[in-house]
Amino acid sequence: MTDPQLSSRAARATTWAVLLVCACGVLAFWWAKGRPVELPDARSPRISCVSYAPFRFPGESPTKPGAMVTPERIDADLKALSTRFDCVRTYAMAQGLAAVPEIAARHGMKVIMGVWIGRDLVSNESEIKLAIDAARKYQGTLRGIVVGNEVLLRGEQSEKALAAYIERVRSATTVPVTYADVWEFWLAHPALASSVSYVTVHILPYWEDDPVPPEEAIEHVGQVYQRVKNTFPGKQVMIGETGWPSAGFPRRKASASLVNEARYIREFLNYAATVDMPYNLIETFDQPWKRELEGTPGGYWGIFTVDDKPKFPMQGPVVEVEHWWGGWLSAAAGALLMLATAGWWRVRRRAAAFGISALAGIATGGALAAHGRLLWVACQNEVEWTAGVLFAAFGLFTAVCITRAIAQRIGEGRDAIDSFKRQRFAWLFMLSLYGLLLVFDGRYRDFPVALFILPAVGFALLALLRTSTAMPMLEERMMAAWLPLLGLVVVFQQGGVNATAWLWGGVNVLLAVAVFIQWRTARTQARFAQDAHQQGERA
Q1: Alpha helices in 411-498 (DSSP H)
Q2: Which letter does DSSP use for residue 274 in this model?
Q3: Is the pTM of this model over 0.90?
């Protein structure tokens, strides 16, 4: 027989309310992702110049030894790009990219030719020689030569050594020669301006140390550009990189999304058309290999997908997730799964258990669809895919077990309900570990909120319904004690303005509360048992 104290009306009502909010929340989330967003139209779809790197297909990366791109591949790319852009910017001469100026000339395109400067002095010498040779052969095709890209930012050469490389190329050709780096490093090394024909700065509002939200990004670009011009009077200033990622983790108020990328590109093009501002957008195609260096956003700065398809139009509304209804289908599948496995038909109040199972299934299916979307954009290799899928499977298993327990409790079924000690410990450990990574090494990490919100809500409801009187282990209580602190630190690191960080902090608090409620229930039960034992002895 079920103890009325363990199935109070307040606990039941709270359970219904929480599951209803979760189910409606995931449905609303996916619905919102599919709504067309009205944005300002670009005055023209034509773009002055755009960064070009051909390493975009699975397994391709310029960081791999022996990486090479064929002239035929470059020719096919530039033939297609010539109908959309006037110019491309490259970053290196090696790995087959020395052929870009010749091929671009055949398609009527200009080139801002990049010379990669790093720590390897032999490689630097080869880059310099290839660049000088190309500058002499294709002078009419080149708008400029960029000797070194963010070398000072990476700390791979001194300012003096970099200036010497620039002077060598500049003295060997009449093509304008420059160096490209984020704007702060130009301000920190103003003497370098005397070595270049013009100053090339990178202004990336999303990647700023103090990230700039998309609605303020164009104003920020204009202010930074003017500041650099004032610092180097008499020197032309070019924006060598600017853009916005279409996927990835939010940085304070700067959210990486397709809608925000489309908004930024359109607004920037409109702004650049009204001022004297030479520019280059980053970049032509998405570059999956960059995710290893910069996290998820690094792979999604392209105006086109890896398959050369436009990610958004230059006019009209933009939809964040075209196939948003997939989230609803996943929610429906989750509901069916829970109804099939939760055992609601074996309890006295079948309608109540049926409703609980359906709501929990909708929430679970929708949340796992969101986790699947994160895996789709974030996973770089088979190991990450395997881990992500296994975690999702464990999350689904936990959700099924918890839903079954809640459905039986609400339906006043049997009281023989598992205490979920091992599962709860596993989720506490994983959340604690990932929380530590976010706190101490979180610049390039995603927020897997959709995965962890399932056990957080589930264990909190189990504790609220008092489905078990077992005492949480000491290790569980210790992890529960520091989880809210870890979540608070992440919120603080995000300036207190990142909604995703707040949601992540909420997940930490919720799982900690579940352990606290379970601990209090166990202590209360133990005290009642002790009192009953003492009364029995006195009797």
Answers
A1: 421-441, 449-465, 474-493
A2: T
A3: yes
